[in-house]
Amino acid sequence: MKIYTKTGDKGITSLYGGTRVPKNAIRIQAYGDVDELNSYLGLIRSYTKQKELDDQLQVIQNSLFDLGAELATPNEKMILANGKPRLACLISEKQISFLEEWIDAMESELPALTQFILPTGCPATSVSHIARTICRRSERAVISLNEQEELRPLCYIYLNRLSDYLFVLARYFGHLAGHKETPWTPNE
Q1: pLDDT digits (tens, 9 = 90+) for 89-99
Q2: Which domains does the chain have, with CATH numbers?
């Protein structure tokens, strides 16, 4: 299989099921943002030496592929004639529960957050903050897509919880590295 097909050379691409759409369609933007986020999680994984965190991030990367597949599938192609979902890899409550458990475990080791902090610190902290902002952008794109074509709410709930996870992960990396958080000080 060749990596290039030339079928997208005119600015059109295919969704799951064969529907052709412009490459700047909101659906493409939504799963493109999720793909970018997934790439940043790979970068974060290159910074961690902790197997438990690496394992969590790998689970999340797989979940983001699941989400991307769901976003790439128009609603009319999502359900088979027998009423079953076409995709077996749909975002689930279980994936959201994992994020919440991991957030709680990391927060139990962190000092209480009493003020806003600047997104800075060691490289792993900084990249986690970048991933968090990309996650928020992904969430906005998915919500915009939802305004055009109703999605399962778990798609954007997952991204909302993932951005929380990435914020706590950024703080956790800083904590592990012994870096003090930098509080936001409003300019006067």
Answers
A1: 688 999 999 99
A2: 20-77+88-177 (1.20.1200.10)
